[in-house]
Write a structure and sequence with these properties.
single chain; alpha+beta; Aminopeptidase
């Protein structure tokens, strides 16, 4: 499939309606409303990116994240419209976020994301983005509930905690 040409912009109050529509398609079990996205953005500790098609400015995907500390970012939600999956949109969002972190030289940088057991298939996506599974998360003697994926690039550490 051909790569989709997109521009990645900050999420705005105007884009939350399209983002909520994509969210409902990506997370049918737990969709978020435009009002929830607006409330999160207004709090000031949550930010978003929207990937828009260059041909018609239609949103193709989004990433919602928070800065936990100066050197740490937590990926809260990542979604790509089903019509545009497999065309580099999700990877573009992850790379844009990673590039924004890489501009802070001399710091250990951390990108984390939590995945539920039903979302473990996304581990393949993160591996294609350069992450490696190097840690299992769970209680001693209990079934593993999560995996920690790490990516080393340009002096930065990115973790994905499913």
């Amino acid at each position: 499939m051909r790569r989709l040409l997109t521009a990645v912009d900050p999420m705005t109050p105007f884009s939350v309606y399209s983002v909520a529509e994509i969210d409902g398609l990506c997370f049918p079990d737990a969709p978020r409303s435009p009002q929830e996205y607006l409330a999160a953005l207004r709090k000031g500790d949550v930010y978003g990116l929207v990937a828009k098609r260059l041909s018609d400015d239609r949103p193709a995907g989004f990433a919602l994240y928070s800065r936990e500390q100066r050197y740490a970012v937590r990926l809260l939600r990542l979604g790509v419209h089903p019509d545009f999956r497999g065309r580099g949109v999700g990877r573009g969002l992850v790379e844009t976020l990673a590039a924004s972190l890489a501009y802070r030289p001399g710091r250990l940088l951390l990108l984390t994301a939590d995945l539920t057991e039903s979302q473990l298939r996304l581990g393949t996506f993160f591996k294609r983005c350069g992450f490696e599974c190097n840690h299992l998360i769970g209680r001693k003697g209990a079934p593993v509930k999560a995996f920690r994926l790490t990516r080393y690039a340009g002096g930065a550490v990115f973790e994905c905690r499913p």
